[in-house]
Amino acid sequence: MNKMSSTPQPLLSSAAKIAIIGGGVAGSTIALRFAELGLDTTLIEKGPSLVNGPPICHLHAGGNLYREICDEQCLTLLKQSIDTVRVYPHSINIRPTIIALPKTDKGQPTDLLPRLEKLRTKYSELVTQDIRNKVLGEPADYFRFYSREDITALVNKPIPNEASQASDWLISFAQHVDLDNLKFPVLLVQEYGWSAFRMAAITSLAIDRLSSCHLQTNSKVVAITQQENDSAWQVTTKNGIGSLNHQHFDYVINACGFKSGEIDDMVSAKRQRMVEFKAAYVAHWPQCQGLWPEIIFYGERGTPQGMAQLTPYPDGYFQLHGMTQDITLFDQGLVASSLHSAQPQLASRFIEKIDKQWPEQLVNNRTLGSIEHIAQFIPAFTQAEVAAKPLFGAQQIPGEDADLRAADVSFHGRHYARAEIVKGSSALAAADAILANLVDCGLIAETELGEYLTQHYFPVSQQCSESEVTERAMVLAKQRDYPIALAKNL
Ligand SMILES: Cc1cc2nc3c(=O)[nH]c(=O)nc-3n(C[C@H](O)[C@H](O)[C@H](O)COP(=O)(O)OP(=O)(O)OC[C@H]3O[C@@H](n4cnc5c(N)ncnc54)[C@H](O)[C@@H]3O)c2cc1C
Fold first, then answer.
1. Which atom of ligand 1 is nearest to the CA of 393?
2. Residue closest by Cα to atom 35 of ligand 1
3. Count of domains for the chain
4. Full residue range of the structural domain in which residue 333 is found
5. pLDDT tens across 350-386, in order?
6. Three-class SS of residue 457?
7. Ligand 1 binding site (Cβ under 6 Å of any ligand atom)
8. Is 223 found in the same domain as 103?
């Protein structure tokens, strides 16, 4: 495809050259945000393709998976998730999430009510401000509680393939979950699925088409220096065969995810952060197909009763999380930076898992453990089988609060920004904040940007059709050795 053929006229006349280091969801989103405006953007990624870091499966549109975080973070996640659906609609799997409290849990379902009401009010306000924000259904239906009687009434209905009413999403739940294990009511909330493979597809399709975006894959940044009396940067990359390349930029964005500290150390930028290694597992349960919501069974993180999360994909595939030390979490998997380095040091056993393969026995043990964890609540899930290698990676958490879930960006010195997202949906907010900083630095004229400083302008990304996204996402899933079902639209 000729990049020029589908690129609209650039909005900005700025000659600034921007480098983004790291092509995860943060770096790729920032690259798209800038290149769509016509900024000269270079995206440098050490791996062979984009959005191939730690997984993403859930759009945290309200932060309802996290009872421990403050309401403010939940409201931020809601707004950021709405923006994400608007910019990347074909990456979203539209299905609700059911949240159930096991009888062993210390809380009560109604404890969730005050926050849910705040979220519903906020969603309603956002829709009133701009009708295009109505991407999670009617605000009045943002959440709903179902009693045991409501659920029992669904037990004998056939599991449908499509939902014609909200309660259709509860039929598979009613038939398969051991209801005696739960407290009632259960909650249904409009937190959707988010496909990492479809995001990878959209970003790569759009970047292919944007003439102002220069993508350099298989290029690892190994050195970076700033001129003394100038703000310009020299960035040195190493390619797959070891050749070095020196390039000059006016502004550098560190979007290296859990490796952000390495770039911070190269530029002597101090920063306190944590890094956490985690994994999710892929199971196949072909005996039970049809309409499935995501199902969350709350539990205390880090204990054997840690939260269980069942994320549905087409063709009987499921992604599983269990917030116990034997499933998603790992002993010493959470580490912090030190006074001497902004890069938290994960033990080599984690780095080996990220850079090389997992031992087969570990894949089996942990996936079977996750199946058993879900089967406590869905007994027939013991029929499910290990379907692929885990989806895993390390995620950065800026600062000292390991529970922080809504973060975006920080700045250091002259013309240097770091994307510090914890959840994928914060990537757009990071891009917006850096754009505002480019204005503050005088690299872009605010008058030229106008409404696009705050309005998301993604004409090329939004032109990607659903079918081409699916096609590219399936190619990526195959290349990465995962079932293509994970790339299909639900
Ligand atoms: C098990 C698990 C489940 C998760 N589930 C969800 C979820 O459901 N929803 C959600 O929103 N979030 C989820 N997250 C969090 C989400 O994965 C992260 O927020 C997100 O991936 C961070 O994106 P990023 O772009 O900042 O970093 P990354 O995705 O890590 O991208 C950083 C990129 O930088 C590149 N890089 C690093 N160093 C260099 C260098 N020197 N030179 C060039 N390139 C470099 C890397 O190769 C990588 O591609 C989950 C995380 C984990 C671990």
1. 53
2. 22
3. 2
4. 95-193+274-393
5. 999 999 889 999 999 999 999 999 999 999 999 999 9
6. coil
7. 21-27, 44-47, 52-58, 60, 194, 220-221, 255-259, 262, 278-280, 392-393, 395, 419, 421-425
8. no
Instruction: Report in angstroms the alpha-carbon separations of 432 from 95, 290, 409.
Output: 28, 39, 10
Helix (H) or strand (E) holding 265: helix 260-266
* Domain CATH number, residue 296: 3.30.9.10
Give the Cα separation of 21 and 31 in Å (integer).
Answer: 10
pLDDT of residue 171: 97
Q: Are residue 332 and residue 378 in the same domain, yes or no?
A: yes
Residue 135 sits in the same domain as residue 235: no
At residue 318's C-alpha, the angle toward residues 312 and 319, to 5°, is: 100
**Residue 146 placed within a domain:** yes
pLDDT of the residue at 187: 98
Looking from the CA of residue 22, the nearest atom of ligand 1 is: 34
In terms of domains, do 184 and 278 share one? yes
Q: Are 261 and 114 in a shared domain?
A: no
Do the beta carbons of residue 98 and residue 193 sit within 8 Å? no
Mind listing the pLDDT tens digit for each residue in 215-271? 999 999 999 999 877 889 999 999 999 999 999 999 999 999 999 999 999 999 999
pLDDT of 288 reads: 82
The ranges of the chain with pLDDT < 50 are none
Residue to mutate (ligand 1; options 60, 245, 259, 334; most atoms within 8 A of CB):
259
